[in-house]
Amino acid sequence: MILDIQGLAFKYPSRPVIQNISFEVQKGECLAILGTNGVGKTTLLKCINRILKPQHGVVLVEKEEVFKLSRPELAKRIGYVSQRQGNPRYTVFDTVLLGRKPYIKWDISSRDLEVVNQVLALMDLTDFSLRFLDELSGGELQKVIIARALAQEADVLLLDEPTSNLDLKNQYEVLRIIKDVVQSKQIAAVITMHDINLAIRFADKFLFLKQGEIFTAGGMEVITARNVESVYSIPVCVEHFGNVPVVLPL
Amino acid sequence: MVNDYAGYTAKKKLIILLLFGTTLIMGVYAISTGSSGLTMGKVVSTLLGQGDPAAKAVILNIRLPRILAGLLAGAGLSVAGCVMQNTLRNPLASPFTLGISQAAAFGAALAIVTLGAGKVQNSIADAVLINNPYLVTTSAFAWAMIATLVILLLAKFRGITPEAMVLAGVALGSLFGAGTTIVQYFAPDVQVAAVVFWTFGDLGRASWNEVIIMTVVVSLSIAYFLMRRWDYNALDSGEESALGLGVNVDRIRLGGMFIASLITAVLVSFLGIIGFIGLVGPHMMRRIIGGDHRYLIPASVLAGSLLLLISDTLARTIMAPVVLPVGAITAFMGAPLFLYLLARGYQKK
């Protein structure tokens, strides 16, 4: 496995947010974290990346305990795409170049420029590279922020609702790129999502959070009406189109 | 694509080079300006080790320390403002909004009034004499650092946000302003005059000793900021993004604030209060050269130096032989320019 989370717990002084979270992700896999608003999905990602310091638990990337690493070393292993975006007054190239920050000692190297070029080409952003971020559409902007995380050449990507505020076309495009990159580079992605059907379409595994704890986790077999109803507290049915389940609220 | 990007960054480097050349020429012009009838050619030849003894005496003993003080103070205040605005993520951050200048002014007032460091002397050349400048400077520096430490301790142990940090600075500014008023209220007229004189920024106070200390502090600080330029770029994308990119945000923020405050404290305590350079310098450059700190830091350094040199030259020539306080000129030049920039809106470069 590439990512191994053991007994992660985080609480604010007034209330616990996540408790006893343990799961694994294999190379080439996308894991979707699902659950209602405020259940702790973003907190979980921030704890994995040590943006928040969990009170309990261990995070291993390639069997290495990441909490013992320095910040730049951690950034070489885990790339993070937050809901908050980059600086609108930076160009696409400069923003993606920031992904090389953990590797830059004094100035950028030819290797840094090479990686940025590759990532821009991979994300189909080459033509936009000298545009400022505030000149981009929502989909293009999201691709730039993902490109920045890819430039970190990390083993694990954490993506916090990467498809929020995107139209259907861009949602599919962004997730397709993430899935392709994860498979081709044999890394792992942990993605928090609200759209359960989109998650079904792109993720390999699913983890449902309820009241800060894992309600259930696994492959396509956990996508059942009973599980979804328990987590989201609304009646649903699950229809199948071929092998693909579709969750329909009733 | 790499070639396109190289062209894009080459433009920024060219702007910095032009700024450097302009500052250099302005420096020579500023040295030649005054009542001694020096020409720019004479200044250059004297600086190169030639020239007559009279010109040498004027240039090396009077003009050069003043111009170097201007270059250093402008560079230091501007780069301090640049880093404060980045680390606090607040475009209004400056030594003033953080209360550091007011704390230094309070320290100076306290030394002049209660420690007997100042008195008024009636002479044409120097209307007011502070008879123990190092006592005033030490006290101003100590109080500026107290204000800085309060802000840093609040940030470190109470975990206050950048916005709250600026509010804390405003509170400190009011507190030290009130302290200065009380000190002045109980002081005799002559000492009040000395305090008021001190609060006007003036480059003429700098001797070679001060220039050497300022050179060490300002150049080491600029080197530190340049070393951290990628961290500041990452911080521009937000705290969470910066953490995700491997930036130790707390350390960078505290380090940046400490060094920026140190520069301010040293400069304010040697030269008095010189406003607006820390705001206008980096803001102007941000609009011309963009927000990338690889270019913004050197550009802010040069812009601050250039602005302060122009202001000082104006201060010396507008009402010659009367030399106006440079702090008043920077405010006259800086405030309308700042308002113009705001009114013009954000234009991308």
From TrEMBL, chain A:
One Pfam family linked to the record: ABC_tran
Give start and end of each ABC transporter domain.
3-236
Q: Which GO terms describe its molecular function?
A: ATP binding; ATP hydrolysis activity
Q: Which UniProt keywords apply?
A: ATP-binding, Nucleotide-binding, Transport
Q: What InterPro entries has UniProt attached to this entry?
A: AAA+_ATPase, ABC_transporter-like_ATP-bd, ABC_transporter-like_CS, Metal_Ion_Import_ABC, P-loop_NTPase
Domain of life of the native organism: Bacteria
Q: Which CDD domains match?
A: ABC_Iron-Siderophores_B12_Hemin
Establish whether keyword ATP-binding is in the entry: yes
Q: Which family does it belong to?
A: Belongs to the ABC transporter superfamily.
- Annotated protein name in UniProt: ABC transporter-like
UniProtKB/TrEMBL annotation, chain B:
GO molecular function annotation = transmembrane transporter activity
Q: Would the keyword S-adenosyl-L-methionine be found if you checked this record's keyword annotation?
A: no
Q: Where is this protein found? A: Cell membrane
InterPro entries for the chain:
ABC_BtuC-like (IPR037294), ABC_transptr_permease_BtuC (IPR000522)
GO CC terms for this protein?
plasma membrane
State whether keyword tRNA-binding applies.
no
Primary localisation category: membrane
- Protein keywords: Cell membrane, Membrane, Transmembrane, Transmembrane helix, Transport
Residue spans crossing the bilayer = 67-84, 96-114, 134-154, 166-187, 207-227, 258-281, 293-310, 322-343
Q: Which GO terms describe its biological process?
A: siderophore-iron import into cell
Specify the protein's topology with respect to the membrane. Multi-pass membrane protein
CDD domains on file: TM_ABC_iron-siderophores_like
The UniProt entry, under PANTHER family, shows: ABC TRANSPORTER PERMEASE PROTEIN MJ0876-RELATED, FERRIC ENTEROBACTIN TRANSPORT SYSTEM PERMEASE PROTEIN
Which family is annotated? Belongs to the binding-protein-dependent transport system permease family. FecCD subfamily.
Name of this protein: ABC transporter, permease protein
